[in-house]
Amino acid sequence: MISTSYLSDAAVALANDGWCLVSGFLDDAQTNALAQECVAMHDARQLLPARTGADRTASVLRGDSTHWFASEAMSGPQQMFTDRMDELRLVLGRELMLSLVDCESHYAVYRPGAGYARHLDRLRGSDARVISAVFYLNRNWQDTDGGALRLFLADGSHHDIFPRAGTLLLFLSGMYEHEVLPATRDRMSIASWMRQRAFDAAD
Ligand code: OGA
Ligand code: MN
After folding, report:
1. What are the tens digits of pLDDT across the range 90-106?
2. What does the pLDDT read at residue 115?
3. Best residue for ligand 1 mutational test, from 66, 135, 149 (most atoms within 8 Å of Cβ)
4. Which domains, ranges and CATH numbers included, belong to the chain?
5. CA of 168 to the centre of ligand 1 (A)
6. Could you tell me the pTM of the whole model?
7. Closest residue CA from atom 9 of ligand 1
């Protein structure tokens, strides 16, 4: 039984600030298993150039390649991650009184120089995505490697989060524009969205 008390702390931080960092979400072995699988799938060309927007058109906004976790084809590491994310989803739903019905996740790899322009994590016409979660898989990441996720805050300032292995960032999908700055090395993450039922959903 994994303790969820620190996940409750994340709920408080999310309620107060609209975003937070969670440490210890997965242990090193679990994080490494995901990183190794992501590298292997990328090497096997199983990640595809990402699309943006409800119409999923090719985009110049983002330069990453992704692989969506699919319930009928979930690997061991993906299932472990999904189970853990579901625990977090249940805690956040309970503590924040949100109806978070499911979660979708994908691996993303940004090659050197690739980024994702400033955007909001809401597909056009849909308010399904409530909480964005980004889990990072990169060991020995230095600030000089670049690749920060830049979160734009309401007061006009911004906060840079570097994609170090084990870091989990949560933020309210409808509230924070953000961008991925280019890096000098391959940059791996898992992006997840906890969703509510949306009646105008385009996805
Ligand atoms: C996204 C995104 C951030 C990251 O996929 O929408 O903003 O750090 N990803 O990978
Ligand atoms: Mn995003």
Report:
1. 999 999 999 999 999 99
2. 96
3. 149
4. 8-195 (2.60.120.620)
5. 12
6. 0.93
7. 191
